[in-house]
Design brief:
Length: 80
């Protein structure tokens, strides 16, 4: 059951359900981010002087975290 008590409502099932399709798209982007991250780490190991590879690896890490960010945003937007 939902444990919504007053102002600190932590359970928002409607936001979770509305966010599922967007989280699925974010999950696909996350998989792309994993591939970019692996390639970026490999290139940075081969040539550590490439600063642009570090930026690409940071972008890949944000893509990997995208599904969690999307679900958190959606659940925060819908009130209890």
């Amino acid at each position: 059951m939902c444990c919504c008590g007053g102002d600190d409502c932590q359970c928002r099932p409607l936001g979770f359900l509305l966010g599922l399709p967007f989280a699925f798209v974010a999950l696909i982007l996350s998989l792309v981010g994993i591939v970019i991250w692996i390639v970026g780490i490999t290139v940075s190991c081969l040539c550590p002087c490439c600063l642009c590879v570090t930026v690409i690896v940071e972008l890949a890490l944000s893509l990997i975290k995208a599904p969690f960010s999307v679900m958190k945003w959606f659940t925060e937007q819908i009130p209890c």
